[in-house]
Amino acid sequence: MPSGRSKPDGYEDVLSEYKACLFDGWCGEPVGWGFELLRRISEARFEALWEYGTLECVYPKWFLITRSLTRDEAIRKYGQVTDEEFGPRGGWKSVTFGDKKFLSRKLRPKKDLGVEA
Hints:
Elements: E1 19-23, E2 30-36, H1 43-48, E3 54-58, E4 61-68, H2 71-78, E5 81-86, E6 92-97, E7 100-102
Antiparallel strand pairs: 1-2, 2-4, 3-4, 5-6, 6-7
């Protein structure tokens, strides 16, 4: 299995170079890195890509995400959590690290994901 920055074998001609692919909808900072699918591939080849990461669609483009921003990385880069917003029923809405507010659901606290910290 290749490293997160290396293209999977056999996909060199259909994937972009490694890059920031997903950006937070509020602050615009990158939250996911990997490869853009440059053209349509067969369903079997597409499904096989799940072995190497997560497939995400930001219409109309598809990306193979091999690395996502974690809460710990965000704290190191932007600062401690200064605010966390929850809806009226307790559902997570956003988190602010230093002065950077993020809406990316990948940055929810682990307990909110149903995983013990």
